[in-house]
Amino acid sequence: MQYESVLPHFEIKEGIQGVGVFATTDIPENTVLFTMHGKILNQPTRTSVQVGHDQHIEDKIGGRVNHACHPTARVNQADRTMISVRPIIKGEEITFDYRENEDKLANPFVCKCCNKEIRGKQG
After folding, report:
1. Range from 64-68, 75-79, 112-116 carrying the lowest mean pLDDT
2. Structural domains of the chain, with CATH
3. Concatenated DSSP letters for 70-92?
4. pLDDT, tens only, 107-120
5. For residue 12, is pLDDT > 90?
6. Is 122 exposed, middle or buried (0-12, 13-18, 19+ CB in 10 A)?
7. The pLDDT of residue 123 is above 80
8. Residues 41, 16: Cα–Cα separation, whole Å
9. pTM, full prediction
10. Which pLDDT value is given to residue 13?
11. Which letter does DSSP use for residue 63 in this model?
12. In 3D, which of 42, 25, 41 has the Cα closest to residue 87?
């Protein structure tokens, strides 16, 4: 699948699960929001994003993207990008479903939208 390659601007502020990343422009579906860069670790941290088997990246923007059961984005592990899964409107929070991407979270938590404990794919 081809993705639109647009790098929108983001604002970091209080979100649904703590500090989050918000769009400052309207973003079409299937847009590459950003590519993650940073140190690769073999264990998850509270702010890492899983990008492969036992590979977790510490990215300044990705580490602030919150969980949502009905997310606005997803992680493409192959090229370490965050991609919109539907149109995102200006001011909307960028989120992804940790249960779809993370094998196991370093810090499980209770989701504010479904009231269930989020632990990653393994729970």
Report:
1. 112-116
2. 10-118 (2.170.270.10)
3. S-SEEEETTTTEEEESS-B-TTP
4. 999 998 889 999 99
5. no
6. exposed
7. no
8. 26
9. 0.88
10. 87
11. G
12. 25
Can you tell me which residue has the tokens 């079409």? Answer: 28
Q: Which amino acid is at 99?
A: R
Instruction: Tell me which residue has tokens 């919109």.
Output: 84
C-beta separation of 73 from 33 below 8 A: yes
Enter the tokens of residue 84. Answer: 């919109």
**In degrees rounded to 5, what are phi and psi of residue 63?**
-70, -10
Long-range contacts: 83-87, Cβ < 8 Å, 24+? 83/3, 83/30, 83/31, 83/32, 83/33, 84/27, 84/28, 84/29, 84/30, 84/31, 84/33, 85/29, 85/30, 86/29, 87/26, 87/27, 87/28, 87/29
Are residues 31 and 8 in contact, defined by beta-carbon separation less than 8 angstroms? yes
State the Cα–Cα distance between residues 23 and 41, nearest whole angstrom.
Answer: 28
Q: For position 74, what pLDDT does the model report? A: 98
Cα–Cα–Cα angle for 49, 50, 53, rounded to 5 degrees: 165
For residue 77, give both structure tokens: 């592990």
